[in-house]
Amino acid sequence: MSDRRPGSRLTLWALAVPMMLIALSCLYPMLFALNNSFKTNKGYILDRFGLTTDPTFANYVQAWTRSNLDSYFLNSVIVTLGAVLCLLVSASLAGFALAVLRFPARKLVFIVILASLMIPVQVVLVPFYKTIIGIGLLNTRTGLILSYTAFFLPFSVYLMTAFYAGLPRELTEAARIDGARFWQVWWYVMLPMGTPALITLGILNTLYCWNDVLISLLVLQDKRTLMVGIAALRGEYTTNVPLLTAGIVLAAAPIVLIYIVFQRRIVTGIAAGAVKG
Amino acid sequence: MTVGKEERRVAFLFLAPALILVVAFRIVPLIWGAQLSLTDARGITPGAFIGLDNYRELVTDPAFRDSISNTLLLIATLPVWITVPMLLAILIHQGVPGGRFYRAVYFFPAILSSVIVGSIFNVLLRRDGQVNEVLGLLGIAPVDWLGNSSTALLSLIAVQLWATFGMSVLIFLAGLSTVPSEMIEAARLDGARLRHLIWFIIIPTLRPIIEFVAVVTTIGVLTSMFGLIYVLTAGGPGTSTTLPEFLIWIELGKLNRPGYAAAISMVLFAIMAGLAWLQIRIMSRNVHV
Amino acid sequence: MKLKMLLAATAMVLANAATAQELTVWDWKSGDPAAATYIEAAKKEFEAAHPGVTVNFVMQPHDQYYTLLGTALSAGSGPDVFLVHGGAQAKSRADALADLTAQSAGLAGLADFTADNGAVVALPITIQGFTVYYNKARYTEAGLDPANPPKTWDELKAACEAIKAKGAVPCFAMGNKEGFGSEFFVSALAASMLTPEEQAAFAKGELKWSSPKMKAILQAWVDTQAWGWYEEGANSMPKFMDEYEMFMRGDAANTIGLLSDVAHWKQFDDMLGAENVGAFRHPAPEAVVSGTDGGPMLPLAGGIGYGVNKAGANAALATELVQVLAAPGPIAVFAADAGILPANPAVDTSGLNSPTLATILPWTASAAAPMAHSNSSPEELEELHRQSQLLLNGEVTVDDAAARMDEVQAKAHGG
User: Which of A48, B64, C93, C277 has the fewest CB atoms within 10 Å of its CB?
Assistant: First the structure.
């Protein structure tokens, strides 16, 4: 889809400059953290900004063992995968219903979903804790999966609704006229059509679940998640920055990987041909 | 009509998991919180019913009033939070040189937790930090960004924007995938310039997504900045970077006044609901009505 | 005969079943390598004395500690034992803590763990205090005698002038981003400026911030800034750990540091070398109280302590656990490995090897004064944080700041 008009091409090249600057500014802090992760604590205190003079992997080893990163890693993976799956399925179902289907009180349901997004988390903490204990899921990974789904659903439902609302009506109508039941419309039409949004949600929810510390701390006391282990490295007085940055690099690596692998799928367009038929 | 009935049944079935979880974990606590805001609870002692006294106290509390004026300033900057990521996404979508690289890198700040971002920028924004160094190359005198009441809030806003714009870019990119490419091609062949394409084709198609980003960004800045504020400025200097969410944490965690904290939460909720309603009214005359 | 044996056997089985318990302890220390040996020692000692009972230490990240604790306690399901800071936090959690007065005999620093009704709510583990640490090399460089640090306010002023004239480093490293710098300053001066009666009155909210003495402290805060004691940008430097890292790099001549845990003799000895670090008590303008050697007073307080959850199912057993956690055996391990000052005077600290510590230790007996800020209300402290920043920036006058502090103080103690 390249433009042959020289004017537009020039504009795009000119705009690339500030965009590149922004991109570099996004990279710099990660490099800063990476650089510091190879310093010793003393080395960091003496020279915070400079390049590592005597790189060491000791911080990574210490971060891994001290935060029980191997077992915590597994917990994070299980919980995140479970929660993201639940979120994607329930959000696309709900989004489909809200955006396309007709039923009474549709506006009210939408308002409830929206309102729940706005409830500050501190209001929710104590009743949430009581509920988790009440249904006997304290200190279980299932309980944490359920909690994440509950906390991140409103956002996901809202996005799927907005996305589906932007799709041409003819898609679903065509399928219904062909005799498809609603379940089939969802499975054969809404899911594929919703792929860009679902992948976006997949990435965002993976990020939220992976990075969460507070809910994880409340629900899981023994089998902890990765970011909790990293947060504990921070200690009361943040005495060891290199150790902390090593932990951060370890924790961020999976997300970076997932993002790089999946982000291209987000931009692929939907099969516009289906409508014309 | 059978079709209508089935449609209704299916709709409620599809919505059931979401609704149950949302009501149990969000709506019920909201009501509980509203009740709590009408008491003078301290520590874990339940506290007596005091009606609207907490709210009356809020009106006279200088810290709360400052947090509201800071909120107004924050809201005034919202258009930037929405249009910049949108334009960046559009440019990437339209094939700006290096677009794939930007697409990958813009998201990186979002991966870091706000505490990490705060720790990093604490160092970068210091009087002898890298930001002032760079500004020095341009001939600008060093500024104590976080230690001056006049610059602290803007610095905070800039850092949060930096940390979160990548997510909005991502969401806009997803929305852009629904823009019919034949329309763009046709318009181009007709001689349309880039800005016409943007204004007349892309933005209208993106309407529901723009509205989504507007509402969600508003909620995000009002409910997820605690970590950043805590590490970057601790609400100061004075109250120049104190926002309502931060006050809630102080009242709850340090001053141990759950009733008062709940009252601030209710006010915050009302503000967000009001803003969301406004944004939706302005933006959508289509979709889910 | 057989019946008796059967009954005895059943009783034993039942007794064992009843004692197959687990006690949960929440804190922010147990995962810290420096504290690991202490935790092990305490766990061993307790479990040996109580077969069938295991102790489970759950470490919470410090940032979230009080949020988690508050949530769990409010939901009615907190841990059996939990750690608290002395002062405002311990007192505001008093309604959830069991009364440990009976078990607290002989421990120092109890004042910071005593609730308004007089009950001791946690047993102190460490003693905390403020003293000035100084860099001997920087003193020599500025023409000052490193063996003779300032003993009076005028001497300190003169020392800072000399250091400023030399121009190499600021006199004091000051981190006031969260307002902690001001807390330390206020307590350090109040220790020598307020009589014990005045300290008590201040804790009760009767000695106002607008009183001549408290105002003088606020004025001194402003003055020291005007005299250029501190580096530029003090309001954006976090006290923990940036201020101390600045001192540890040798980029400041003095800093107000702690006695236990962190930012203390052990850490500074490590970074700067024991022969290069010294300590002196912070002098005050218009001092009215002095130690037995005529020098300034040392603000001292209980540091951290373990308390028992009043509503816990195993409160009695938990009480015994807390006593073990505060007992000489485990505490001696803590002191040796982590460099804390124990709250239990029965602990032998002679093995601790630091000339700076050797200077400081006698002061804890000869010049101890209450730590003013930890006896004040949390609301006042929050407001002090804000006002101190505005004062440093010159955005508010001392009179206005004091007036605002008065309002908050009155509300915290009366309304």
Answer: A48
- Supply the ipTM of this predicted assembly: 0.87
Size of interface A-C (CB pairs under 8 A): 66
pTM (predicted TM-score): 0.87
Structure tokens at B247: 């006050």
Intrachain domains C2-127+302-353 and C128-300+357-412 with the same fold: yes
What DSSP string runs through C374-391? GGS-HHHHHHHHHHHHHH
The set of chains that have 3 or more CB pairs under 8 A with B is A, C
Q: Quick one: pLDDT at residue B289?
A: 36
Cβ <8 Å between A125 and C241:
no
Residues of A in contact with B10 (CB under 8 A): 97, 101, 182-183
**Contact call for C66 and B148, based on CB within 8 A:** no
Cα separation of C126 and C304, whole Å?
6
**What is the distance in angstroms between the Cα of B145 and the nearest Cα belonging to chain A?**
18
Q: What is the mean pLDDT of residues C47-58?
A: 92
Transcribe chain B into DSSP letters: -HHHHHHHHHHHHHHHHHHHHHIIIIIHHHHHHHHHTTB--BTTB---B-TTHHHHHHHH-HHHHHHHHHHHHHHHTHHHHHHHHHHHHHHHHTT-TTHHHHHHHTTHHHHS-HHHHHHHHHHHTSTTSHHHHHHHHTTPPP--TTTSHHHHHHHHHHHHHHHHHHHHHHHHHHHHTTS-HHHHHHHHHTT--HHHIIIIIIHHHHHHHHHHHHHHHHHHHHHS-HHHHHHHTTT-STTTT--HHHHHHIIIIIS--HHHHHHHHHHHHHHHHHHHHHHHHHH-SSTT-
Position C3 confidence tier, pLDDT thresholds 50, 70, 90: low
Provide the pLDDT confidence category of residue C13 given band limits of 50, 70 and 90: low
List the single residue in C71, C240, C241 with the smallest CB-CB distance to A126. Answer: C71
Residues of C in CB contact (< 8 Å) with A are 24, 28-29, 31-33, 58-64, 67-68, 71-72, 74-77, 240-241, 245, 248-249, 261-263, 271
Check whether domain C128-300+357-412 has CATH 3.40.190.10, yes or no: yes
For A91, which residue in chain B has the nearest alpha carbon? Answer: B18
Of A129, A133, A234, the CB nearest to C61: A234
Superfamily of C2-127+302-353 according to CATH: Periplasmic binding protein-like II (3.40.190.10)
Amino acid at position B211, single letter: E
Quote the pLDDT of residue A239: 64
Amino acid at C391: L
* SS3 assignment, position C342: strand
> Average pLDDT of each block of 10 consecutive residues along chain A (277 residues)?
60 89 89 87 79 85 79 91 95 91 88 89 86 88 93 94 85 76 83 89 93 90 83 69 85 87 72 36
Whether residue C67 and residue B254 make contact (CB cut-off 8 A), yes or no, is no
Digit-coded pLDDT (tens) for C175-228: 999 999 999 999 999 999 999 999 999 998 999 999 999 999 999 999 999 999
> Which residues of chain C lie closer than 8 angstroms to A217, CB-CB?
60-61, 64, 68
Please answer whether residues C310 and C291 qualify as being in contact, where contact means their C-beta atoms are separated by less than 8 angstroms. Answer: no
| Residue to test with chain A: of C25, C54, C64, C84, most A Cβ within 10 A | C64
Q: Quick one: which of A268, A7, A181 has its CA closest to B9?
A: A181
Smallest Cβ–Cβ distance between A3 and the set B88, B115, B188 belongs to: B188
Token pair of A39, please?
């310093």
Distance from CA of C377 to the nearest CA of B (A): 9
Instruction: Report the distance separating Cα A246 and Cα A234, nearest Å.
Output: 12
Domain borders along chain C are 2-127+302-353, 128-300+357-412
Interface test with chain C among A45, A233, A236, by most C beta carbons within 10 Å: A236
